[in-house]
Structures are given as structure tokens and as C-alpha cells.
Write a structure and sequence with these properties.
- The complex is a heterodimer of chains A (415) and B (155).
- By secondary structure, chain A is mainly α.
- Chain A contains 13 helices and five strands.
- In chain A, the strands form two sheets. Chain A has a three-stranded mixed sheet with strand order 4-1-5, covered by helices on one side.
- The mean pLDDT of chain A is 82.
- With 155 residues, chain B is mainly alpha-helical.
- Chain B has a domain of 63 residues.
- Helices cover 57% and strands 0% of the residues of chain B.
- Chain B is built from five helices and no strands.
- Chain B is flat, with a radius of gyration of 28 Å.
- Classes of the chains: A mainly alpha (415), B mainly alpha (155).
- At the A-B interface, helix 1, helix 2, helix 3, helix 4 and helix 5 of A face helix 1, helix 2, helix 3, helix 4 and helix 5 of B.
Chain lengths: 415, 155
């Protein structure tokens, strides 16, 4: 009835959404735990699955009930819509923030290729046997889909900030827009280089091209590119050190200052969903997706055990990246906004364009062992960045400070 | 057709998740309106004026640059996909395109458009040039030259 691919896609839709939403909920818990470890505290360890109710059996489980309790609490909170907001946009904005973050998961190849045996229930054939990619949509523009959907995430933030009719929200929304727009370019260029190297935009083929143990992974051969992608991804997800849109000291809550209850929870969910999405795409672009490190002869297709193993490997790599993002949040202080824009426009964009040109020339010349060449280009670019970077003329001084007369910096006092 | 179907299905499930979350709570949560809750939260200060005003041009400049670069990216993706099939021609066609973008980028850099903090009055060279040519100081330099005693007439 269904072809193998359709059946597997439906299976993945049903399972992936639930598993990942659970992962997103628990990444909030992970964030709090990591924060407490960084700051030498214990962190949430009380809330068990009994939720403090006497009629439920006592079942503590190291505070793992915390995300569920948080979610339950957010359901029960008053959802207040202030009267001076733009009501329609105010309600639409959180949805616009969450949905793009969720549907970007559609192109992630979770577990490689499944040699699907077919499914027959009571003599009726439900799914035909055949080869299927363990993903929602095996489209040949997979990476482009990720970029397109990722760009939509801007709308949720900017509309939320605009509709709130609050100056903090408005500033937060504007900052988030400028930041997401700026960092989308290095993100796009770094993905472009991967496409150029592999000649395909299909996510499963990109992973398959890397699946040769750790020496096939892109992060080994293009470390600078991986750093650029990771940085841009952090900025796209509005994470520290790039969370200027919601920095508490200046803008209270940023674009979600006026939101409460479930609408706030949706924004919160969107942020963590973005982290998980970013981690998944970092895994598939640079960490070899489902490929097991130090194991070369990994079969591309197989039965259910292999698929489950692949999903496990993929999820573990994602977990490492998410944990890294969280450690970064509690380690690195926040940028200033002009520094943030300078980093995008004066550093990441030219460097990624240089790498793009180098990759194009190397592929066109059909050099042997292109991986080694690419590694050389990455290292050389990094050295050039460190050595030449500070010596590049900065352009006209449009922002020189005028010292007040009488201060010791004033050129006017001497005249 | 099939991938489109599964993406639509995924989109519907995602939308459904959001809508269910937003509506379920409606039957559970309390409702306690209060005049103080209706005020705009700006750290306790009463809010002055509406928020829907015109804002700084710098965000517009960023949007313009983004447009240029993003159109470039969107045009260059197919180029990257087919690059391996005809590397020579692709490189020959791609390099001038990238070169044009690069020229524009260098112009942006040296015209100072990439500076984030910039304002009209904050031009020390012009202010000081004015100062040298005429005896009546103008702009911020004039402000800087005022005696502390006369500062009181600044509104």
C-alpha cells in the first residue's frame, strides 16, 4: 500500500517529534544542571515523578521530574494578554518562533538507510519492502530547506517584539533581527562550501560521504569552517555570548518581556529547539552524522539494529554539542552589540568567502587528496587571520570620541 | 510528491502541537485581571509614548547588506551543486560574480558602512575643521568648549 519510504517517513514523524520535544524539555534541565556544576552548586535535584503529591508513590530519580513539573506549572499559569498590544500578532508570534524550529528537523537523516523488510498485518500489506532513508523527507535540497526554514525563525522574534508595544521588547526584536540576518550569511557560506566539496545538497549523501571513521569527518579537514558554522549557529539560536536580544541587564526579557504562561513557554521551547536543531546540523555537516568514530567498515544500509545504533550515535553526538553550547553559556561573557556586528561583518563573512573561493579553485583544479589541501587552506587562513587581521586598515573613523575640553584626553586644551 | 507530503504532515503535526498547547491551558488556568497588569512593563516607570515609532537607519543598512549577500548565496547554491560536473566553466562564471560581491564588500568596508556606532554629530574632523576656519565654534565642539558657568543655558 505505502512504499517503504513513505512508511518510514511517517514512522519518523511520529517518533522523532516526541523524542525531540522530550529532549528539548530535558535540555532545559541539563542547562540548569550544567550551570550548577560550573558554579559549584548542586542544581535541581528534588522534584521527582511524585511531584510532591502525597497520594503518588515516592520516586525521586535525581530531580528528573523537574521539566515535567515546569511544563505543568506553565499550563496552569494565567495567560495575560496586555490590552495595549497588537492582539493578532501577539498570539501568532510565538507560533512563528516554534514551528520553524520544529520543522527544520524534517531533513535530518537520523539513522542512515534502512533495508525495510515490509510490513504485513493480518495478510494485508501495509508497507512494501525496500530501501528507505530514516528521515522525514529525503529531498535533494535538504540543506537549502534547513536554511530557508531557519530564516523564518526571525519572524517570530521580530513580530513578538513589535506586537508587544514595549520598548524593551522592541529593542530586543530589532537586535535579534540584525543579529540573525548578519549571521545567516557566514552560516550559508559554510554550508555552501560543504555542498561544493561533496557536489550534493542531500543531507543523507553528505553524511554518507563522511562515513569513513573519524578521518572522514569534515571537522578534521575543515576545522576553521566548523568554528564559523558553530559560531553562526550560536548567534542564530540567540545563545550566549550572542544573546543580545534578551540580555537581562539591559532589556529585561527582550522580545518576550510581555509574554506569560504558555506563550512564554513556546518562546523558551523555540530557543532550545533551535539549539537542538543546530546541534543536529552541526553533527550531520561536520561530525559525520551517524558514522561511528574509529570504525571504517560501517555498512551504509542494514536492518533495524543497525538503524537503532545509527540513531544512537547521532543522538550522542548531538548531546555532546548541546552540552558544549551550554558550557559556553556559563563560561563566556556576553558581547557588546557593535562587537557582535563587527564579528559577523568584519571577520566571519570575509573569512568564509575566502574559504569558498579556495574550495572552488581546489575543486576546479581537481587536485588529488583534496582533503589535505582543504586542511592546509583552513590552517593558512587561520594564520593569516591572526597575523594580517589586525593590520587591515579599518576604514574612515566615523566613530571617534570627542573628548570634552579640560579632560586629559582632549586635543582642544592644547590649542 | 512524497517528500512534500511528509513535510506537510510534519508541519501539520508541529502546528497542531503548538495550537493544542495554547488551547489546553485555557480550560485550566486562572483568570484574574488587574489594572496594574494592563500597564506596560518598563521596570516600574510609567511608559512614555507609544512604541510604534520610526527607528534607527542602521538596522535598515544591515538589512540592505543582508539582501545583497543573501541573493548572492541563493543564486550560488545551484552553482555549487553542479560545480563538479563542469568545474572549468563554473569557475569562470562564478569568479566574476564573487568578485563583484567582493568589490561591493570592500567598498562597504572603506565607506564606513559596516561601523555599527555612528551618528551625525559625532564627526570630530568636521567639527574641528569648522572650529579652525571660523571663530564661532559649532556642533559638539562648541558644546565641549563651554565654560562650566554657562552650561546652565543648555536646555
Amino acid at each position: 500500500m505505502f512504499s517503504a519510504q513513505v512508511f518510514v517517513s511517517m514512522l519518523v514523524v511520529t517518533i522523532a517529534l516526541h523524542v525531540i520535544l522530550g529532549a528539548v524539555a530535558y535540555s532545559v534541565m541539563l542547562e540548569r544542571k550544567i550551570a550548577s556544576w560550573v558554579q559549584n552548586r548542586i542544581g535541581p535535584n528534588r522534584t521527582g515523578f511524585d511531584f510532591g503529591q502525597p497520594f503518588l508513590p515516592k520516586f525521586h530519580f535525581w530531580g528528573l521530574g523537574q521539566p515535567l513539573a515546569d511544563g505543568l506549572k506553565l499550563f496552569l499559569k494565567e495567560d495575560y494578554t496586555p490590552p495595549n498590544v497588537d492582539k493578532v500578532l501577539f498570539i501568532i508570534a510565538p507560533m512563528l518562533a516554534v514551528v520553524p524550529a520544529l520543522i527544520a528537523w524534517a531533513v535530518i537523516p537520523w539513522g542512515g538507510y534502512w533495508d525495510f523488510p515490509g510490513l504485513t498485518v493480518f495478510g494485508t500489506e501495509i508497507a512494501q519492502p525496500g530501501m528507505a532513508v530514516v528521515t522525514v523527507a529525503p529531498i535533494n535540497i535538504g540543506i537549502l530547506y534547513f536554511l530557508a526554514v531557519g530564516s523564518l525563525a526571525v519572524y517570530g522574534v521580530v513580530i513578538g517584539g513589535y506586537a508587544s508595544n514595549n520598548k524593551y521588547s522592541f529593542l530586543g526584536g530589532l537586535r535579534a533581527t540584525a543579529q540573525m540576518l548578519s549571521y545567516e550569511i557566514p552560516l550559508g557560506v559554510s554550508i555552501l562550501i560543504i555542498i561544493l566539496m561533496f557536489g550534493t545538497a542531500r543531507t543523507d549523501l553528505i553524511v554518507l560521504n563522511q562515513a569513513q571513521g573519524i578521518l572522514g569527518w569534515n571537522i578534521v579537514w575543515m576545522p576553521l569552517l566548523a568554528v564559523i558554522f558553530f559560531t553562526s549557529q550560536l548567534a542564530e539560536a540567540n545563545r550566549t555570548p550572542f544573546d543580545l536580544a534578551e540580555c537581562e541587564q539591559e532589556l529585561v526579557g527582550g522580545f518576550h518581556t510581555e509574554y506569560s504562561s504558555m506563550k512564554f513557554a513556546l518562546y523558551f521551547l523555540a530557543e532550545y529547539a533551535h539549539i537542538v536543531t543546530g546541534a543536529a546540523f552541526f553533527t550531520l555537516l561536520f561530525l559525520g552524522g551517524w558514522s561511528i568514530p574509529f570504525y571504517v567498515g560501517q555498512a551504509a544500509a542494514g536492518g533495524l539494529p543497525l538503524v537503532l545504533l545509527n540513531v544512537g550515535v547521532f543522538a550522542f553526538k548531538m548531546f555532546l554539542i548541546v552540552a558544549l553550547v551550554m558550557v559556553i553559556r556559563w563560561t563566556i561573557p556576553r558581547f557588546r552589540f557593535d562587537q557582535l556586528m563587527q564579528l559577523a561583518w568584519r571577520c566571519l563573512i570575509p573569512v568564509s568567502l575566502i574559504l569558498l573561493l579556495a574550495a572552488a579553485v581546489l575543486v576546479a583544479l581537481k587536485v588529488p587528496a583534496i582533503h589535505w589541501w582543504m586542511l592546509g587552506v583552513n590552517v593558512l587562513t587561520f594564520i593569516g587571520l591572526v597575523v594580517i587581521g589586525p593590520k587591515v586598515p579599518k576604514g574612515p573613523p566615523v566613530n571617534r570620541k570627542i573628548p570634552l575640553e579640560g579632560s586629559r584626553f582632549s586635543p582642544l586644551t592644547t590649542s | 510528491m512524497t517528500p512534500l507530503l511528509s513535510i506537510t504532515l510534519f508541519l501539520l503535526v508541529g502546528l497542531g502541537f503548538v495550537l493544542v498547547n495554547l488551547t489546553i491551558g485555557r480550560f485550566l488556568r486562572p483568570r484574574a485581571p488587574h489594572p496594574d497588569k494592563a500597564s506596560i512593563y518598563e521596570c516600574g516607570e510609567p511608559s512614555i509614548g507609544t512604541n510604534w515609532v520610526q527607528f534607527d537607519l542602521r538596522f535598515y543598512m544591515v538589512a540592505l547588506f543582508f539582501l545583497v549577500f543573501d541573493v548572492e548565496l541563493a543564486l550560488i547554491y545551484p552553482w555549487a551543486v553542479v560545480f563538479r560536473d563542469m568545474p572549468g566553466v563554473a569557475l569562470l562564471l562564478g569568479l566574476p560574480f564573487l568578485g563583484l560581491i567582493l568589490i561591493g564588500y570592500i567598498y562597504e568596508w572603506y565607506s564606513g558602512s559596516l561601523e555599527w556606532v555612528r551618528s551625525g554629530i559625532n564627526r570630530p574632523d568636521e567639527a574641528m575643521a569648522d572650529d579652525a576656519s571660523s571663530q564661532t565654534p559649532s556642533g559638539l565642539a562648541a558644546l565641549a568648549r563651554r565654560d562650566p558657568e554657562t552650561l546652565s543655558d543648555i536646555p
